[in-house]
Automatic annotation (TrEMBL):
Pfam families: HTH_1, LysR_substrate. This is Selenium metabolism-associated LysR family transcriptional regulator. Keywords: DNA-binding, Transcription, Transcription regulation. Residues 5-62 form the HTH lysR-type domain. Belongs to the LysR transcriptional regulatory family.
Length: 298
């Protein structure tokens, strides 16, 4: 049966060897000299060979046996390997190293996450993050396929996702987006009937209107654009108008206007989506708690 080494005993052995004495090793270990002697004796019993020559009464010098000299570099190697693993696991538990993967809908990715991630990473320079920006359906699929630790999106038809946990964090109102010189841009709020006769462009969030009176408008729309960059470009060109959540409206865009849709009054809920049966890494759990704290959620 192979001997099972205790890291503490290996450290005691290395200290006695390097400091040339049990007394010096005892001081370094903050132990008594008899305790160090007992530790070394137990290690020698496990190995079946003495590590140190019998001490000469005329000198306090401690010398290694040939076996001890052979064992010393191996003991150091074992200690170094143990300490590397212990350090890595400690850093991982403190979310200071490792690899974290998350996905988010574009509106939160561009508006909320830059500041949150900047602050979160201030004390975690060794943490690697892979970030994916896509629509809600794609984010949900990445969570399901375990491509990411968690996702940030809306969860439609929540009753069909019993295997997932949804923690709501943000909410924003749906509004109409059009060119700034469009007649609708002068309105303070809009009723869905005022959109009749307009060229409507559907997008990924148009499904929020499907179960409302306004659903018929988008069901007959001529255009569907899934990519936000392309959608904004088409709106600026005057191809038509669309509906978007407030967070998705590009900040500082003077070419477009956002008018709240008052009837129907629809609010989109966005939050953390994760698999119920999947444990999160310490880094992922810490980021979620940081996001909740940043959003003043407990």
């Amino acid at each position: 049966m192979l001997p099972e080494f205790k890291i503490t005993q290996l450290r005691h052995f290395v200290w006695v060897a390097e400091l040339k004495g049990f007394h010096n090793a005892a001081e370094k270990a903050h132990r008594t000299q008899p305790a160090i002697s007992l530790s070394i004796r137990d290690l020698e019993n496990k190995l079946g060979e003495p590590l140190f020559e019998k001490r000469n009464a005329k000198t306090t010098k401690t010398e290694l046996t040939p076996f001890g000299r052979s064992f010393l570099p191996r003991a150091k190697e074992l200690i170094d390997h143990h300490d590397r693993i212990a350090k890595d696991m400690t850093l991982l538990a403190e979310h200071k190293t490792g690899h974290l993967r998350l996905a988010s809908v574009p509106s939160i990715a561009s508006r909320m996450l830059p500041e949150i991630l900047t602050r979160f990473l201030e004390n975690t320079p060794d943490l690697h993050i892979s970030f994916y920006d896509d629509n809600a359906a794609a984010v949900l699929k990445m969570v399901e396929n375990k491509q990411v630790d968690f996702g940030i999106a809306s969860l439609w038809e929540a009753d069909e996702h019993a295997d997932k946990t949804f923690t709501p964090i943000w909410e924003d109102q749906i509004g109409v987006v059009c060119q700034s010189d469009h007649p609708l841009a002068e309105k303070k709020g809009l009723h869905w009937k005022e959109l009749r006769g307009q060229t409507l462009i559907r997008n990924g969030t148009s499904r929020l209107l499907q179960e409302t009176e306004a659903g018929s408008l988008f069901a007959a729309s001529q255009f569907y654009i899934s990519n936000m960059i392309s959608l904004i470009a088409m709106l600026e060109q005057g191809l038509g108008i669309t509906t978007l959540p407030g967070f998705a409206f590009p900040q500082g865009n003077s070419n477009l206007s956002f008018i709240p849709l008052q009837e129907p009054d629809i609010v989109r809920h966005i939050g953390i989506i994760q698999m119920s049966n999947k444990s999160l890494s310490p880094a992922a759990e810490s980021l979620i708690q940081f996001i909740l704290k940043s959003a003043n959620k407990k």
